[in-house]
Specification:
This protein is mostly beta strands. It contains 4 helices and 14 strands. It has a 14-stranded antiparallel β-barrel with strand order 1-2-3-4-5-6-7-8-9-10-11-12-13-14. A hairpin with a 7-residue loop joins strand 6 and strand 7.
């Protein structure tokens, strides 16, 4: 009888934790704030409108990197400036950074990304955190790709706590659907592990410090993206995402991007967090991003491989106004080393030479 009572109490405790949902404003978006591509249009489980994949993309779907054929190095920084009237403190400027790499191999594609975020604003009280994601992805068929992440995060300065867990995801490439080309479906389950607990005290969206936990544990995420048109050197596409943090919220994300000659990309994205809006948070303005790609000669890195002379650097920037007056200004550089393999493998069945 005693064991049954203990088990029943444990179930009640788990249920109370499940329905305790009070993240700070921006808590469901922390992985997109520190990188300009993710802030503008690539924080999507399907890779964004024109399939822009950076190391930080694995936080939304670990499968999206499976199509990468080149080594990728990424570094970015975001400054947040609080111009809201309610911030009467001296904490007017916050920041975040992100470093990551994607390394393809014969067996899989490996990705590691480190993100730091330090935001003490009254209307966006995220506190201080450093999160590390490490993932692998692989093709199952020519159309289906899968991925798996492990992550660890440490939160400090407002008490201390940590998160640890895993993300799983898949990416499916459709054939052409009507006038849509390159259609993609991304599905992921994020934050499968330990969330923040009572050891970390920041202000949640309801204005209290009770039951603050973010990002939402067990977050299903579904996304669809496709190219809408290609006219000469100009292409345009869209993406649409919906996620359900903690099964107690709904977050909608949509983005549109166009590119010229695969060198200049302009993107616009917007997201709506239902619980934040219901609790009186200001509506975020759409984000705007600009990226420019340059060809570089990186043969000095690997003199034995002539393909490294055909590398690329992409400089990107993004801006968004959050919660009525927080200006997020982000910039970064992504380097793609080597060249894509566009030639089919040559198969020799026999040799006519004697």
């Amino acid at each position: 009888m005693k064991k049954r009572c203990i088990a029943f109490a444990a179930v009640l405790a788990a249920m109370s934790a499940l329905f305790a949902y009070n993240p700070p404003a921006g808590g469901e978006s922390i992985y997109r704030l520190a990188e300009p591509n993710l802030l503008a249009d690539a924080g999507s489980a399907s890779g964004g409108p024109l399939f822009t994949v950076v190391p930080g993309s694995i936080a939304f779907n670990p499968a999206v990197t499976a199509l990468n054929q080149r080594v990728v190095a990424d570094a970015s920084y975001t400054m947040l400036i609080d111009t809201t009237a309610e911030n009467t403190s001296t904490n007017k400027i916050a920041s975040g950074f992100q470093l990551g790499t994607i390394i393809p191999s014969k067996w899989c594609v490996s990705t590691v990304v480190v993100q730091g975020l330090f935001v003490p604003f009254p209307s966006m009280n995220l506190g201080n955190s450093i999160n590390i994601h490490a993932g692998v992805s692989k093709d199952v068929t020519d159309q289906l790709y899968v991925g798996l992440n492990a992550y660890f995060g440490t939160y400090f300065g407002y008490g201390s706590d940590f998160t640890v867990g895993a993300d799983v995801g898949l990416l499916y490439l459709f054939k052409k659907i009507g006038f849509l080309t390159d259609p993609r479906l991304g599905v992921s389950f994020m934050n499968l592990g330990k969330p923040l607990g009572a050891g970390y005290v920041v202000t949640g969206i309801d204005g209290t410090t009770a039951d603050v936990s973010y990002p939402g544990i067990v977050t299903p995420h579904v996304s669809f993206a496709a190219t809408l048109f290609t006219v000469k050197k100009v292409s345009g596409g869209f993406s649409a995402d919906i996620s359900a943090p903690f099964f107690q919220n709904a977050v909608f994300d949509t983005a549109f991007a166009c590119t010229y000659n695969d060198m200049v990309r302009l993107s616009i994205g917007w997201n709506a967090n239902i619980r934040e809006l219901a609790d009186g948070c200001q509506v975020n303005l759409p984000s705007i991003g600009l990226a420019v790609k340059f060809a570089v000669n990186a043969s000095g890195i690997s003199k034995a491989n002539a393909d490294w002379a055909k590398s690329e650097i992409c400089a990107s920037s993004a801006w968004q106004r959050l919660y009525g007056g927080i200006q997020a200004i982000s910039g970064g550089v992504t380097m793609n080393l080597g060249m894509k393999d566009t030639a089919a493998p040559e198969i020799i069945l026999w040799n006519d030479e004697e």
